[in-house]
Design goal:
It is a single chain. The chain is about 45% helix and about 15% strand. It is α/β, with parallel strands linked by helices and about 350 residues long. The protein has 2 domains: about 200 residues, Periplasmic binding protein-like II (D-Maltodextrin-Binding Protein, domain 2, 3-Layer(aba) Sandwich); about 150 residues, D-Maltodextrin-Binding Protein, domain 2 (3-Layer(aba) Sandwich), CATH 3.40.190. Helix 7 packs across helix 15.
Amino acid sequence: MKKIILFLSLILAFIVFVGCDSREKLYVLNWEEYINKDLIREFEKEFNVKVVLDTATSNEAMYNKIKNRAGKYDIVIPSDYMIERMHTEELLIKLDYSKLPNYDVSKFDTQLQELRENYFTGNQDYSVPYFWGTLGIMYNKKKAGVKELVENNGWKVFFEREIIPAGVSVGMYDSSRDAVAAAELYLNYSLNETSAEKLNEIETLLKNNFYSQWGTDELKSAVVSQNLDIALVYSGDYFDQVFLALETETEITFDMYVPTENNNIWFDAMVIPTTATKVDLAHQFINFFLDYDNALENASYVGYCSTMFDVYEAMKEDEELSDIVLHPGYYPGNVNGEPYRNLGAEIALRMDDILTKAKIR
């Protein structure tokens, strides 16, 4: 009985302790496994705050949370086209660069900066680059013939059923924008296609699906566990699994092929949405992750390519990281491609409809 009373007392004490946490709270909406938690704790300690992390599985989910004011988020880390959409719909707060002493355009990769300068007008007033990358084809290198199949055919492996041998499984990204993009890359169309005729062609192509699995983060896990042989992934999906395998000292049974002449170049960025109630603290958070040492530690943990060129160069020189960073699919600057653009609500709904129909067998 005494043990029970003691146990209940401890629980009550914990509840009281948590409930009495009077620290200021900063609400961050991000992707899963996309930030170093040790750095979050350092930020909390330095600024005497509590960071509350929430995650989303897609840009559209992030948008809906901000649009519908589902939470008082102070920082969001969406992708290029969603930043453009949020900006167009006046859902972002203009950044005050006097509060970002670590911000310096010269820190960013020159090719990334060129993308930013040619993106929507004013984008640099509202967003600070976080990570960037491409799309890739992750595959099970233990299965005979799969490496050659992927490298010889590229995007064809997602659409030409006849080239896929019996027993080889293929996974497709469960996101309307990315599934449509895969078809556009295969057809050599722009990733920002709005032609009704071409979108109809893409719908027909995706409806003829032979995919064993639709998914997002679970695709990379399925390839790692050898339950899936080929999958459309973001380049960072592959690299975070490589980092994890090295950390846990497990065999790397997978690889990734990144087509360099026809691809998507994406960049995610930190923005302050209109839901923010801690605007000054949000600026401090952005500034904290712009610090060179913090950016290096974050990139080394997350696995995606840093937007800061000096960080990328430092990782190349690190003996433990160089083999990963020198992988041909790691650095987006090696790729000829284009970023997604905001194509408007009507095209977004059309893409959602294409995905819905594609998943009906």
